[in-house]
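Researcher: Go.
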Amino acid sequence: MPLILHLHPLSSYCHKVLMALYENGTPFEPRMVNLGDPDARAAYLKLSPFGKIPVLQDESRDATVIETSTILDYLQQYYPGPVTLIPHDPDTAREVRLWDRIFDLYIHQPMQRVVADTLRPEGKRDAQTVEEARATLRTAFDLVEKRLGEMPHPGGATFSIADCAAASPLFYAQAIEPFATTHPRLARYFEALLQRPSYARVLVEAKPFMKYFPLADRLPARFTA
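Model: Structure:
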């Protein structure tokens, strides 16, 4: 199989790429990354110098692609399917890419900072960093809430890479800064993402590993038990 995706089932960045692959039924081989194994880590760093996951390898084109937004660009260009993830119209494409970045930078990254803080020893935790991250999440939620009053999807009229970027950051962020009662449009949009077959499949595959998420007790039981 020409496409190989190096991944971990809990990684929200991996979920972003998996969702895109499943949307279009793109064949690929999943390979689990174990950065805790010294030999496996050394081999992986040859593919991804920063040790980040996922990485997409395309054996048919002798290409290795890192960074999720770049991977989705690559899939759209070389493995297009029935779902157009990046619109052909340049103005609409720019809007989609903007929202992809908003979800990555202002929901995904703050969520990760809070999760990382929970892994620190009690005396090493940084309350200021956590509160700043949660404030960023609230600002981002407000922005998405407003956008969803104008468009059915953050990226515009149709499903796109912006939705792939939104799903898992929102999934994990609900354990940090719940939005179900404060942002009704966002809550409805998130529920629609949960029902979408591509993302439902991602969560089914991740379920055996969810117990390892540091805030698993704050997630809905149907995704962890």
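Model: The mean pLDDT is 96.
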